Each structure stands twice: as C-alpha cells, then as structure tokens.
C-alpha cells in the first residue's frame, strides 16, 4: 500500500468557524485538550476544568474525553513514532492540528482497543468538526494504513524511552542510573491508583466498602471508580485523597501533639490534615485563595482544625518561632507524571533551575522562624535532584546552625529502599512496583542546633 503523502495542504483553519458551531463530543473535547496542553502549555487538569463543553457531557463521556487525552499524552512518543512511520515525508508545521487528530486516532487504535472502523471514522468526523475537512481523506488513509500494523509496531517499540523527553531521561539516568531511569519511565505507562489516607477513627468496614488494601506505609489503596465525592466514606470524612508517597514526609516531624507547626505551601491540605490529626496546632499557609478554600473545605469535612493563612511564604512570619515546619515547596512535579502525563511535555530543564532557586529562597526564609532544636521537613514531589538534595545541600553548606537529621529505617516502616546514603527520603515511581508503585517524592529532615546554654 503506498504511503499517504505527508503534505496536509490547504488552510488548516479552513472551516473552523463552521466546525465550532457543532456541539462538543468527547473526541472534539479531547482534541481541544491536546491543543491546550501541547500548543498553549496549559496543564491538562486546568484545560479540562475550563472547557465549556465538559459540563454538558454525561459522566461516561466526560471520563472518556479525559482518558483519551491523558492516554494520548502518556503515549505521545510512541504515537508520534507510528505516525512518522506511516508518512512518506514529515508533516509540515502548519499541519500541527491535523497531527493532533492523527494522535487521537492512533491512541484509540492501539491503546484504547477501539475497533478500527470506529477509530478511523470518528477521526474523519473530527476533521469535519474542527474545521479540517480538506484533510479528511489524508487522515483516513494514514489511520487505515496504521490499523493493519499498529499493534505489531507498538510491540517492537521501546515504550519507556519513546514516551520520556530526552532531558528527563538524561537527568534520571545521571541521578539514579540507567536501570532505575528505565523502571521510572516504565512506571509512568500505567495510570496511578487511587490512594487514601484514613481518619484514625474510620470504621473497620471501610476497607471492604472501598475495595481497598492497606499498603506497608499505612495508606489505603482503592480499586473504587467514579467521582470522589460519591465514594464510600467521603461524606462522613473517613479519608482524604493523598498518594502513598505524599503521606510519608509529615510523619518525619515525629510526635507533634500540642506543638505549634507551620505547614508552608499547605493547600489543598493533605499534610495539614495529617498534622492536625496527630494533635498539632497547625498554621497552614498558602498564597492561593482558591486552593486555601479547598483546604478549609477538606478540614471541615474531616472534622479537623487548623489556622489557615493566605500569604506568600517567601515573606510570611509567624508571631513567634514555631516548634516544627513542614515545607512542601512548589516544584516541577515530575514525580507525579503517572497522574499527570502532561507534565512530561510541559516542563523544561530551565524551569527546574528557576524553581530550585525559588525553593532555596523559601527554605532559607522558613529556617529563620524555627525554634532552637526544632525540626524542619523539606519535601518536593519532583524527581529532579536540583529541586531536592541540590537545594538542601546548598543550604546546609552555608548554614552551620542547621544540621541534617537522617531519616532511618524506623521512620519508613523498614522500607530502607526509600532512603538515600545521606539519610533523605527518595521515593521513585517504581518503588513498591508489585503493589502499584508510588509518586516520586523527596524529603529531608533538618534541625536547628539547640543554642548553647551559658554556664
Ligand atoms: C505541592 S502543592 C502543596 C501540597 C500540600 N502541601 C498538600 O500536602 O496538600 C504547593 C502549594 O504551594 C503553594 N505556593 C506556591 N508558591 C507559594 C508561595 N510563595 N507562598 C505560599 N504558597 C505557595 C501553591 O499555591 C500550592 O498550593
């Protein structure tokens, strides 16, 4: 079969206005979401929340639109390699939107087990809906060709490498070694499970009602599906959503009952809830009013209390020094690619470098209001060493009053594979792989040396 000509031709925007009048379908929405992420660098969740057509879909179609766009992003490298294989010459830049239609079509053919005729016909339809009618025969020819060979092509691909941007692959290989890098990238091919942190008074039947198992870290891992507020135990505040790795760092502050703890960069409040549940007097600080509102809603539902403050952590000061600090800095979030496959394509090495300097500034400032002898836990859901040990080691090197308090086996329930040689926490998405993995996370525990008492 001759290869379809790679030249898309015609005006890519052609009858776009005619297409825009048609009602949204799950596939037109998935197309818009892909465009928002890849052409406008908008996070997928944000694009999904803001798309006016999403609210008009029923629950099933909404879930399909989200799943189709997320799977296309998760498998983008493989999908693009298949498209390139099917073309006689590269698609010109002006046909970028046609490539999105092909991407969604290939994703359905290969990764969503959509029958070939449905994947091809709906992609041709998408050309019509989104103003690319002139390209419909081209899309039809490419997808028909791939329908016959895509499964064999996919089986021969190096999925882990193709779906990982080169800068991330190089960074993870250098930081963790080639074998771990490959294991991390392979973990990203699967969607993350639903993890819940239970309220300590949650009733014993909760696990059964949620179809959950308890991980060695204490987190409940559920197989339940559907909207979170409709899951058993949500309304009565029996749990909150929190990845297993994200639930570890707050425990490093130790026994916090009755202590004043500043939870910095706190929203939506997963760690605030843990600290409040442990009996701390928590001041939760975040600069986003909307996210702080979610934190307050979450605490109310859980029957927990904390003081919440809307402020910039770079300048905020408590009225008096605090006994402990949890600093969960804003970051590239490359540890959460399983949940947010768009992150792999949205972030860059330059952004990591700029985030690391913000993180260092926040850490240095937070240390100024720690009580003598107090602990600070610094954590970040990034796999990039610049945002983890890079920040902590730079601060330790210039602050003789601050020492690292190594995290040990007892702090991580014996899961020593989660500890670095320096005594920091380093969770990789491939850890606990046999149980479904975890988000990537880094944490270090620091202590302000007690001031020497005068004789
Ligand atoms: C990784 S999230 C925190 C997650 C939270 N600790 C939890 O466990 O649910 C980072 C948060 O930092 C907040 N943030 C970013 N920069 C900030 C700043 N300079 N001051 C205060 N909050 C900030 C963001 O609004 C966001 O809510």
TrEMBL record:
Official protein name in the record: MFS transporter
Binding site for S-adenosyl-L-methionine: 265-271, 286, 312, 328
UniProt keyword terms in alphabetical order: Methyltransferase, RNA-binding, S-adenosyl-L-methionine, Transferase
Active site: 381
Region (Disordered): 1-23
Family statement: Belongs to the class I-like SAM-binding methyltransferase superfamily. RsmB/NOP family.
Gene Ontology MF terms in the entry: RNA binding; RNA methyltransferase activity
Alphabetized InterPro entries for the sequence: MeTrfase_RsmB-F_NOP2_cat, MeTrfase_RsmB-F_NOP2_dom, NusB-like_sf, NusB_RsmB_TIM44, RCMT, SAM-dependent_MTases_sf
Compositional bias ranges of the Low complexity kind: 14-23
Keyword RNA-binding: yes
One Pfam family here: Methyltr_RsmB-F
Organism of derivation: Defluviicoccus vanus
PANTHER family: NOL1_NOP2_SUN FAMILY PROTEIN _ ANTITERMINATION NUSB DOMAIN-CONTAINING PROTEIN, NOP2 YEAST -RELATED NOL1/NOP2/FMU SUN DOMAIN-CONTAINING
Ranges where the SAM-dependent MTase RsmB/NOP-type domain occurs: 156-449
One record GO biological process: RNA methylation
């Amino acid at each position: 079969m001759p290869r379809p000509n790679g030249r898309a031709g015609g005006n890519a925007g052609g009858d776009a206005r005619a297409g825009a009048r048609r009602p949204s379908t799950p596939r037109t929405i998935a197309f818009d979401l892909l465009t928002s992420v890849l052409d406008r660098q908008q996070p997928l969740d944000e694009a999904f929340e803001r798309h006016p057509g999403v609210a008009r879909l029923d629950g099933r179609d909404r879930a399909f639109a989200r799943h189709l766009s997320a799977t296309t992003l998760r498998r983008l490298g493989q999908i693009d390699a298949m498209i390139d294989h099917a073309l006689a010459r590269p698609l010109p830049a002006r046909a970028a939107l046609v490539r999105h239609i092909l991407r969604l079509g290939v994703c359905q053919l290969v990764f969503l087990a959509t029958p070939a005729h449905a994947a091809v016909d709906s992609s041709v339809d998408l050309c019509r809906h989104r103003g690319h009618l002139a390209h419909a025969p081209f899309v039809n020819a490419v997808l028909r060709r791939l329908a016959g060979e895509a499964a064999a092509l996919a089986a021969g691909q190096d999925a882990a490498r193709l779906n990982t941007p080169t800068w991330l692959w190089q960074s993870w290989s250098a930081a963790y070694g080639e074998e771990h890098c490959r294991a991390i990238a392979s973990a990203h091919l699967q969607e993350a499970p639903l993890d819940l942190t239970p309220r300590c008074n949650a009733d014993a039947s909760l696990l059964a009602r949620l179809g959950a198992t308890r991980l060695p870290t204490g987190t409940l891992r559920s197989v339940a599906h559907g909207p979170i507020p409709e899951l058993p135990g949500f309304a009565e505040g029996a749990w909150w959503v929190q990845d297993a790795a994200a639930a570890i760092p707050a425990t490093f502050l130790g026994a916090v009952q009755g202590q004043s703890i500043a939870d910095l960069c706190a929203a939506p409040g997963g760690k605030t809830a843990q600290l409040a549940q442990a009996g701390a007097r928590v001041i939760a600080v975040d600069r986003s009013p909307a996210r702080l509102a979610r934190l307050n809603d979450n605490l109310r539902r859980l029957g927990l209390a904390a003081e919440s403050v809307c402020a910039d952590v770079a300048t905020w000061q408590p009225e008096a020094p605090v006994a402990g600090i949890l600093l969960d800095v804003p970051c590239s979030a490359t540890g959460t690619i399983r949940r947010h496959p768009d992150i792999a394509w949205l972030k860059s090495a330059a952004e990591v470098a700029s985030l690391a300097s913000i993180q260092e500034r926040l850490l240095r400032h937070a240390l100024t209001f720690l009580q003598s002898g107090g602990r600070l836990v610094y954590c970040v859901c990034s796999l990039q060493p610049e945002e983890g040990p890079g920040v902590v080691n730079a601060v330790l090197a210039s602050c003789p009053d601050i020492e690292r308090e190594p995290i040990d086996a007892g702090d991580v329930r014996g899961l020593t594979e989660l500890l670095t040689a320096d005594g920091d926490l380093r969770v990789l998405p491939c850890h606990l792989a046999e149980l479904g993995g975890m988000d990537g996370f880094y944490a270090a525990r620091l202590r302000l040396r007690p001031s020497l008492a005068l004789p």
